[in-house]
Amino acid sequence: MMTKMKGKLVILAGGVSSRMKNSAVSDNQVDSKLIDDAKNKSKGMIRIGDNERPFLDYLLFNVRQAGYEDIVIVISERDNSIKEHYSNHSIEGLNISYAVQVIPAGREKPLGTADALYQALKSKPEWNGASFTMCNSDNLYSMHALKLMLESQHLNAMIDYDRDGLEVEKERIEKFAITKKDDEGFLLDIIEKPTEDEIKTVKGKSGFIGVSMNLFRFNYDMILPFLETVPLHPVRQEKELPAAIKIMIVENPKSLFCYPLREHVPDLTSKNDILTVKKYLELHYHNFSF
After folding, report:
1. Residue 68: exposed, middle, or buried by beta-carbon count in 10 A (0-12, 13-18, 19+)?
2. pLDDT of residue 2
3. Global pTM?
4. Residue 15's closest CA among 75, 83, 97, 81?
5. How far apart are CA 112 and CA 119, in angstroms?
6. CA-wise closest residue to 266 among 135, 137, 178, 141
């Protein structure tokens, strides 16, 4: 019997944002206050919107509009800015809790995205038996995409974004993880940093190349053991979510369905994204309010 989803969502925001903090900015129009935010805060807390609204506000607006209610935000032990902000700016209709991703002794960074999701699920044992959605804190996913995950009849699913529709520069998008599916649309593999030959292999007859932007639906009981036991990446020494997913779908074939979708996803990866995303919010969320 299919478990009905009840608006559960995990937002990963516990990373150290090294690419954002270490990147240079080529546009002198970016306010120095925003540059300081980028250097010192979680990316979701960059005050990029009207009246100094943080970027995460916009994602949470779409989350609420899509029908989610129970939200877990994974935060870093080194940055309490998210928890402090929403303690003072509660959002009607959203029950927000937090899971802290601790950095183990002897490490400079957390244990990775699989560990981040594992910490979130361990904080919500009452989700046992249910399915939930997971996403990043530095991407502005649409209400439509979020709702697709909420209302899916599959235990596990993902948004399979059309690479050519993301409106991302060629040099950058070529590094995005691509997806390999069977003829029914079920995930066979997630290929990180794909080669040209690997891209040609997954390219459909229509020219569609699917990429992952980390918007997933998971069944709690199915994904949990793989998050816990996935080995560290041999080079990056992190427990990575794609690796856990790949082990899960090998042991459970046809267990994760891919929904193809062509749309732009605003993304805060580096300081050079700040002005672009700010202009996008001004254009599309000019009447935004909670």
Report:
1. buried
2. 44
3. 0.93
4. 75
5. 11
6. 141
pLDDT in tens, 88-116: 988 999 999 999 999 989 888 899 999 99
Among residues 78, 105, 99, the alpha carbon closest in space to that of 18 is found at 78
Instruction: Name the residue type at position 153.
Output: Q
Say if residue 175 is exposed, middle or buried (CB neighbours under 10 Å; 0-12, 13-18, 19+): exposed
Average predicted confidence (pLDDT) for the chain: 91
Domains and CATH numbers, the chain: 8-284 (3.90.550.10)
User: What's the CA angle centered on 227, arms 40 and 261, to 5 degrees?
Assistant: 75
Residues forming beta bridges with residue 10, ordered by sequence position: 72, 134
Q: Residue 3: which pLDDT band, with cuts at 50, 70 and 90?
A: very low
> Within its chain, how far is the Cα of 188 from the centroid?
20
Count the Cβ atoms, other than its own, within 10 Å of residue 158: 27
Of 213, 253, 248, nearest in space to 12 by CA: 213
